[in-house]
Specification:
This protein has 206 residues and is an alpha+beta fold. 36% of the residues lie in helices and 28% in strands.
């Protein structure tokens, strides 16, 4: 589970963001901006990854009613092996994927990420997992996030790296390399192999 300080900071940030979206009185705007500052201070104190100023800038990019962010991932199997890409950022391996973009449906976003990060053309066949990120062993991040995992099928293309990835490979379940845990966990990988072996399994969710 996420640390309590992160849970509290996220709630304060959500209150501030929603308040700033709807507040009309200038004093209310000032108060909600102060709440956002407190949320950033809590996060900065609890983690050495970012300063208060950096976090305030990140929070300021989001407007409107506060909702979870959406991370899409693609599980692509070939001959009982799973496609993984190696992240330049941390050197760990992960399923192709990332934040969903405005204007893309979730499956379209997953297909695009596979092409951009691995070079393969795929089609999405099944929504396998819909997870609350906080409940599956990922390291903490500032945003409350839902993770959507699609089973995809290769229809073309060839392995190619990108500005985000520096290696591409297929791996059996007993030969999974060190993972980028910010993006995917061993438990999620195991569940996706189960869905690959048993295509009739229903979508798993929290």
């Amino acid at each position: 589970m996420e640390p309590r300080w992160l849970e509290w900071a996220r709630k304060l940030q959500a209150i501030a963001q929603t308040g700033l979206a709807y507040a009309k009185d200038p004093y209310d705007v000032e108060r909600y901006a102060s709440v956002r500052q407190v949320a950033a201070e809590i996060m900065a104190a609890g983690s050495s990854d970012a300063s208060k100023e950096t976090l305030v800038k990140l929070f300021s990019r989001d407007g409107g009613y506060a909702t979870p962010k959406v991370d899409v991932r693609a599980a692509v199997f070939r001959d009982d092996k799973l496609l993984l890409v190696k992240e330049r950022e941390d050197g760990g391996w992960t399923l192709p994927g990332g934040w969903a973009d405005v204007g893309d449906s979730p499956s379209v976003a997953a297909v695009r990420e596979v092409k951009e990060e691995s070079g393969f053309d795929v089609v999405a066949r099944k929504l396998a997992l819909v997870y609350d990120r906080d409940r599956h062993g990922h390291p903490p991040i500032p945003w409350y996030t839902y993770k959507l995992f699609f089973l995809c099928e290769i229809v073309g293309g060839a392995a190619a790296t990108s500005h985000e990835t520096d290696d591409v490979g297929f791996f059996t379940e007993d030969r999974i390399p060190p993972l980028s845990l910010t993006r995917v966990t061993p438990g999620e990988i195991a569940h996706l192999f189960e869905h690959s072996r048993q295509p009739t399994l229903p979508t798993a969710f929290d």
